Amino acid sequence: xxxxxxxxxxxxxxxxxxxxxxxxxxxxxxxxxAYTEVEHATWRQLYARQSALLPGxxxxxxxxxxxxxxxxxxxxxxxxINQRLMAATGWQIVGVPGLIPELDFFRLLSQxxxxxxxxxxxxxxxxxxxxPDIFHDLFGHVPLLFHPVLADYMQAYGAGGLKAAELGAxxxxxxLYWYSIEFGLIREAGGLRAYGAGILSSAGELAYSVSSPxxxxxxxxxARTMRTRYRIDTYQANYFVIDDMQQLLDFASTDFAPLYAxxxxxxxxxxxxxxxxxxxxxxxxxx
Length: 287
Ligand code: HBI
Ligand code: FE
Prior knowledge:
With about 290 residues, this protein is an alpha/beta fold. The protein has one domain: Aromatic amino acid hydroxylase (Phenylalanine Hydroxylase), CATH 1.10.800.10. It is about 40% helix and about 10% strand. It is built from twelve helices and six strands. The strands form two sheets. A four-stranded mixed beta sheet has the order 4-3-6-5. The radius of gyration is 18 Å and the shape is globular. The structure holds 7,8-dihydrobiopterin and fe (iii) ion. The site of 7,8-dihydrobiopterin (HBI) has 10 residues, from helix 4 and helix 7.
């Protein structure tokens, strides 16, 4: 078993889960009997609160896929979700004790296995938790694994991550992940909608991301997005917007090696900054 992983952006605080129970690929089985009634109640409370916030804020694809999770009242059994997920897009979720090293993460995604942290936050952490817990992973990420285009993008991202690691470009690629899969926005007929898991699982950031005038919103473009730093401990200072999920899959089919090479000499852009001549996207008028 490798040492517990340095997690992205975290302080030196040791990660929360018990990594000694994980296999060499960091996966561990979900100990369903170990969940307490308090933990099921926390899940129920988070699920009810977040679901009520989705209409008019979450992507319509996310809202359509959420019922496939089949778990509003109690923490779901991973194998129940896997039966539906495997049939839908060939993905399965696997338990992990928490954040895992990038290479292991990329490898699992390339195998259509999504790592889901198997512990849940305490009632005192209802509004904010630094590390992703089971609610962030299951409620935020798993519904869109039922979406065929997103399902293919996630696997391509994993395969791309393994290549990026060989080219020393994982920081660039992780920014693309951050500003799409974690904090991505999509433009729909009704206005801006969130499809990123970090937004969809956050009570406060969901409304902020699609309606606050504060953050900068820009069209998602590979080079610009890969140059843009991100913060993990506040709402995002900028968001990147796509018009169609297919855009992500089209990105994934391009060869990133020349892009990485061209970005090597370019400086990173601070979150929230605009380059000379750049125009942030206006907030769409609320219909
Ligand atoms: N580990 N379990 C888990 N979940 C993640 O989302 C995750 C990770 N390790 C690394 C990571 N994400 C990011 O650094 C990716 O950009 C690789
Ligand atoms: Fe996440």
